[in-house]
Amino acid sequence: KLIVLDRLLAFRETPAHKKVLQELVMDVVRVLVTPAIEVRRKTLDLVMELVTSRTVGEVVQVLRKEASKTHDTTETDDVGKYRQLLVRSLHRCSIQFPDVAPKTIPLLVEFLGDSDKLSAGDVLEFIREAVQRHDHLRPIALPKLLEVFPQIKDAQTYRAAMWVLGEFAVDVNSIKSVMAELRRCLGELPIVDSELRKAGAEEEEDGKSSTPAAPASSARKVTADGTYATQSVFAGSVSSSTETKPPLRQHLLDGNFFIGSALAAMLTKLAVRYVQLVEGEPKQNSFCGEAMLIMACVLHLGRSGLPKKAIMDDDADRIATCLRVLAERNAVTFDIFHQQSRQVLDNMLLVRHEEEEKHKVAKDEKVDQVQIDDPINFAQLTVREDNASAENRLEASLLAAVGETAKKQEEMSSSKLNKVHQLTGFSDPVYAEAYVSVNQFDIILDVLVVNQTSDVLQGLTLELATLGDLKLMEKPQPCMLGPHDFTNIKANIKVASTENGIIFGNIVYDVGSSQADRCCVVLSNIHIDIMDYLSPASCTEQEFRQMWADFEWENKVYINTNICEPHAYLEHLLSITNMRCLTPAKALKGQSIFLAANLYARSVFGEDALANVSVERTNPDSPVIGHIRIRTRSQGMALSLGDKVTLSQKKAVNSGS
User: Fold this and answer.
1) Rounded mean pLDDT, 257-278
2) 287 vs 176, 185, 271, 278, CA distance in Å?
3) For the chain, counts of helices (H) and of strands (E)
4) How many Å apart are CA 274 and CA 267, to the nearest integer?
């Protein structure tokens, strides 16, 4: 299925084929019933490339059904990844075709209450971009987000939802609705006094319940060995003080005061906007006073010692700054909270859109450009040669005149020679060499075996074995070789995962009819490179951090090279590892003695490879030093990628010296 999807993705690059595939996009969507996550990922990538304004309605309907199914299934890692892929696909459809967004937003907002942080973060990112670009979507998205707001469990998702509500509540009614919901999520104010009062009431109830002596009832029991034992039961009342607190209040009591600083910024934006919309100083003072009361309560709670963790100085400074903004009501600070915050979001979305356009142009279909002096091919000029192959005489003569034919044949022969591995020596009685063809999921060995003796070799058998996650599909059949004869033996090896593999074996044959003359020639090893299965990929910063925390295998490789520039070493590393640099180019600009970057690649089997590069240049003329940390889900992939980096660095040093 993956091979077929890759072929379809290749067909998409041709404009004529793309038009045919666009008509069959609903047939491609049916592949989503396959449970394999990598097949689903490639299917959604292909569907997003083929969707048009005519088919977007049907595609979105199918994606909504698939998203609804993820609620009913058991929560696993693949289900969460599939939900995230669906959310991103619906995001792309809604941004590209805004007409389908009103049907998509209510469904996606329901995912905010899930425990999956990645899909919830993608939903909020989609809502933020949708309401920023399209004003008509705000009356649909904000009430739905406000409705699901108390059900959000994750703290990071809670902060992002607070930012969206504080930024896009632009009228008086929505500001009042958001403020009322915040009061419900905070509970009784002041927080410290109410918590101390509840704790005192619970202690009194515990004291009252423990004052009367609990009657004890005893009974005599006979044990298994016939002896007597006395069992006593004490009756007592257990205090049921497990009262569920409002979500925002619970986060603050758990010591997560980063939410408190986000709450202060949100209240400041709401108050600034309310002051500019509502006339009358009493109403303005009332709203600002309520917002300042909430901030003061959060600040007091952080320094009271009641939460599990005390408030950090950064969060306290942020809350104090917001309090000062509302107290002074300066026009400059009001403009920062009211206008410049939105402008920063607009600039960020614009930069992201430009990067996507650059990536799209680089990935765009290749258009055959014909120069004005290029010859025109006529079908009448093609003739059939003896080998029944069509040839254009004019084109062939032109190529022969400029010498391109010999050049192409030379390049083709050199590329094929690079894949030939000599397995035995020239002085061995049996000479063998293998042409290794590495496909996506299998390896085909075409072994040439030459009998260099004057004897007939009977029962000549190629015995192969593999080391690593390789599997020999079928054993090659024995054959008979005459004197100075040769034959080709093919073997198919299946590849199951991304790691370095070794193919080894021997050739066994009989000379004459007696079994005593059984001979064996040991073959040299064939090493399969991991780079044949890795390709550059991209992911968000949040996904990279999540995978970095989840992956348990790490391989730390120290830098040993003759390259003196950190940027040059990074380019060299990207070229030898088939990985993509996730750190933005703007962050790597400039001349510095330090460089840190994140790299990412994905294998054809859906395995992820992460790398963090830390490079330092001590002196202008000395090589860079540092280390590379590689993290993967499997041990073999981490070790194989580390060995590739180490060997390539040594080659760079040798070539430089």
Assistant:
1) 88
2) 9, 18, 7, 10
3) 23, 20
4) 10
Q: What mean pLDDT is reported for the chain?
A: 78
Alpha helices in 303-403 (DSSP H): 313-328, 331-335, 341-363, 393-402
Answer for the pair 445, 469: CB distance below 8 angstroms, yes or no. no
Least confident of 135-149, 174-188, 353-367, 453-467: 353-367
Burial pattern 490-529, b for ≥16 Cβ within 10 A else e, equals ebebebebbbbbebbbbbbbbeeeeeeeeeebebeebebe
Enter the tokens of residue 320.
């104090």
User: Among 525, 502, 500, 524, which residue's Cα sits nearest to residue 647?
Assistant: 500
371's tokens = 């120069």
What is the structure's pLDDT at 75? 60
Cβ–Cβ under 8 Å, residues 653 and 560: yes
Cα gap 218→493, rounded to integer Å: 74
In one-letter notation, the amino acid at residue 357 is E
Q: Are 607 and 637 in contact (CB under 8 A)?
A: yes
Taking alpha carbons only, the member of 75, 80, 44, 78 closest to residue 62 is 44
The 3-state DSSP class for residue 434 equals strand
Token pair for 178: 């958001």
In this model, does residue 332 exceed pLDDT 80? yes
CA 124 to CA 106: how far, in whole Å?
12
CA distances from 99 to 65, 95, 350 (A): 18, 9, 21
Compute the distance between CA of residue 657 and CA of residue 644 in angstroms, rounded to an integer. 20
Cα 79 to Cα 66, 72, 83, 116, 606: the distances in Å are 11, 10, 6, 10, 15
pLDDT (average), residues 588-616: 86
pLDDT at residue 88, rounded to an integer: 82
Confidence bin at 612 (pLDDT 50/70/90): very high
pLDDT digits (tens, 9 = 90+) for 539-573: 888 788 888 888 888 899 888 888 888 888 888 88
Q: Which residue has the tokens 């020239």?
A: 426
**pLDDT tens figures, 414-451:** 456 667 888 898 888 899 999 888 776 778 888 999 99
